[in-house]
Amino acid sequence: MPCCNNSCASNQNRHLSPQYKKVLWIALIVNFTMFIVEIVMGISAGSVSLLSDSLDFLGDSANYVISLIVLPMALSWRAKASMLKGLTMGSFGLFILFTTIYQWFNGKLPDYAQMSAVGVLALFANVWVAWLLYRFRDGDSNMQSVWLCSRNDAIGNLAVVGAGVAVYFTNSKYPDLLVAFVLAFLAISAAVTIIRQAWRELKTISNW
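Structure tokens predicted for Cation transporter:
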């Protein structure tokens, strides 16, 4: 349905708003900082879920950089960027999945205290970013992909904290591995959603 009022037109151009650009810069800085924190602490704690989450933070940082680059470009370029981001997220998800399967048979008991502490820190960071991005979640595929990344991160961090508690009470590595499986599923399912949305946008453009 074509735009017939100022509200509709404004919604189409939300990706150009200074507020959205500012939020993307904040999200980029927060995510790259947490990538460094989690990869160091994930190695130190021997936690697959923390390492998985650190890669997710790195992927999100790259996604925010791409989003900032393509903001002023035409919808076709934004849709192609979303397609690239979707494929990247899916690749990270598959990497996490295969790493977790390997660790299932060869991994050691992680440090639950470090897992929980870093998980709480990452949770606060991601909830804040997700809250900032919430009002921009209904834009094009590029904006949708940014929102889904932040939403998945917040859910993943809750799971990491829960895994740390479960490792403490069970003295087992399996809660950590189960959370890593969940993170892999979230990454792959979000990637499918983004790719489908971007594909629909590209098909719409080609029919103009």
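The chain has a mean pLDDT of 76.
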